Structure formats: structure tokens, C-alpha cells
Amino acid sequence: MPLLNVVFMGTPNIASVSLQCILELRESSVLNLKSVYTKPPVWNNKKKELVMSSVNRLALKHDIDVRTPATFKKNADETAFLKSLDIDLIIVVAFGHILPVDILNIPRYGALNLHPALLPDLRGPSPIHHAILKRLRFSGVSIMALDAGVDTGPIIAQQKVDIGKDEYCESLYERLSITGSVLLSEVIKTIFKIKVNMSESGFVQSDADNDALTATKLIGLDERMVDFLKDEPLEIYAKIRAFAEFGGAYFIFRNKIVKLIEAKLLINGKEYERSVSGDEDGLFYNYNDYVDSLSSGENNNDIVPKDVESLPGTIIMANRLSLIVATTKKGAYIKLLRLKPEGRKDISYIDFINGYRIKPGDICR
Questions:
Q1: Is the residue at 351 inside a domain?
Q2: How far is 191 from 212, CA to CA, in rounded Å?
Q3: What is the CATH number of the domain that holds 226?
Q4: Is the previous residue joined to 12 through a cis bond, with omega within 30 degrees of 0?
């Protein structure tokens, strides 16, 4: 059986994990990898150099032709090049460019896209962050056939992935990358065996208006801000985990930005176990999922004095054992573990306490 002629398009780490599986399929005589597309190198101010994407580095390591067009829109040269390759399939994983219809029409079996969410929910550019921000109990990956819309084409395959209640975005990103690459590999092998036309397979997403579907957006500075005086403690904890490795959630302390790298949500079970009920379908994490975080166990460093009642944002403990901030809900606290003050590297809570002479009663805005 003739091998599949494939072009791969992707940029960040999640794409390089999938590219590694593509390379393994090449070694197994499933496909010919004709070319790799990725975004152009970007200037890194700290390193004072142009930095290639992880996909670019992996492709060059295996002596694969790499192309980095700034855009495909009205790009006759790239259109002609792709047509010259006689390709069966384009595979897209977090590429960063929208492919116009004239490009999508080139491969015999269309274009496959790996999306790190269970479509049709969480379409758009930041599904992993929003899965944590929405406090979902599970996410997943979808393999879909690309069409002219944004994450609206027919779904070919999906795989569900549980989200830990204390999981950070980096960990979820890595697990979805691996799960997605394995699922993508299985779909490609299926195409190799039965040579289906992607436009006639799979099942179509919801017929609802696309605007009504849960869409994500690029994360801005305002979305990453933590306001201890207003934000719900679950919202604060979700922001910290969602953005720790991607810009960082932050709060204002003494008129300076302090990024939150690592923290823990502490809940007094007696305050919530009877007053807060879980969602009926079990899709979202709630306060009762954290009631055991604050216990009276021996040598537990998360103990908060029972007689402490402070305004939201007030530091109620600042010692070698804990740095704890009160929230908008009585019995719910944020324990800060690692922080990154403005203009400095990330530091432990102990170094933050000592360096800034933090004491109980100080306010985090």
C-alpha cells in the first residue's frame, strides 16, 4: 500500500510531542513526512537572540525541510509548493496560523487538527487555561477535520482526560499533549488503512450557532489579575493554577506587581460541608472538594487559628510554616508557596516574608 504523503504544521511543545509520533509513524512505513511548517523564530530579549519553536528544532534535528511563512493569506508561493508535494494529508497541531480554503483543498484527504479540549466546548486559542479557570473535573482532546471555521469541522475522535482538583496548567498541558499525540497517531494509522475522505467521515459538531458554543479567547493582563477583596477563593486558586507557567496570575502589594507561582487552597470543612452542595452532574469542582485541605492532623502546617476573622486580602499568618491570606469567604484561605515579585526571580514564601518584612495584618490588593 502506498505511504501517506503528509505535511505537518505546528509550533509549541504540544505540537512537538505530536511531531515525535509522526516521526515514529514514518519509521514504521506509514507515511512520508514531506515537510514541516512552523511559525518563524521570535526575538528573545533575555537571550538577545532569535529563538526557534520546539517544532523547528525537532524537525531540523531529523533533517526535515522546515518552512516558516509569516502568513498563508494570498501566499502564492506556499500554495504552489504544497501542490507540488502531491500530499494526502495536512496535520495541524497548535500552528498559530489560519489555513485558507485554497490550502485546505490541496490534500486528498483534507487536514486534521488536534485540539486540546472536548469539542464543541472550549473552542479557540486557550482551552487548557479555561478548563482550569472553569474548574472543570475533566477535559480531553479532539481530532477534527479542518474547515473554514474556527474549531468547527467534523470530529473524528476524542479522548477524555481527568483534571486534578489541585492540578496546574503545565501538568495538564503535558498530559493532554501525550494523550493527543497517541490519539492522533491512531487516527493517522486508520486513514492509512482505509483511506477515508475526511469530508465524509466522523460526526459533525452541534448545529447550534457557533457564537453560542463555549469559545475561549487569548488571555490578557486583566484576566490574570487577582483581587483578594472581590474574587471568590475558588476563582483565585483557579487563576493561580491556570497561569503559573504562562505569564502568572498576580496581585498588587505595596504598589508593586507580585506574581503567584504556587499556592494552595485551604478550606475549613465545618464552614462548607453542609452549606455548599456539589453540582448535580459532577462537572465542576466546588468548595466541598477542598474541605479536607484544612485539618487538625498532627504536624499539619495549614492550621489557621479558629478565632481569626480578617478582611479579604489580609495576611493572617506570616512565619516559617505558612504565609496565608484571607479571602472573601469565611473559612477559605489562600496559602502562598512561591511568588515572583516585580523585577525579581521567583522565590519561596519564606524569602518573601523575610525580604519584604511581611507581618500579619498586611494587605494584598
A1: yes
A2: 32
A3: 3.10.25.10
A4: no
Query: Domain check: are 252 and 303 in the same one?
Result: yes
Q: What is the pLDDT of residues 276-286, one digit of tens each?
A: 555 555 789 99
Contacts 24+ apart (CB under 8 A), 50-53: 53/11, 53/12, 53/15, 53/16
Helix (H) or strand (E) holding 55, with range, is: helix 54-61
Segments forming the whole domain that contains residue 11: 4-212
Report the half-sphere exposure of 90 (CA within 13 A, side-chain side): 27
Q: Please, what sign has the CA dihedral across residues 163, 19, 57, 148?
A: negative
Which residues have CB under 8 Å from 316's CB, separation 6+?
Answer: 304, 305, 308, 310, 324, 325, 326, 333, 360
- Residues 330 and 253 grouped into a single domain: yes
Rounded Cα distance between 40 and 52, Å, is 7
Judged against a pLDDT cut of 50, whether residue 229 lies above it is answered with yes
Rounded CA separation 83/356 (Å) = 61
pLDDT category of residue 163 using cuts at 50, 70 and 90: very high
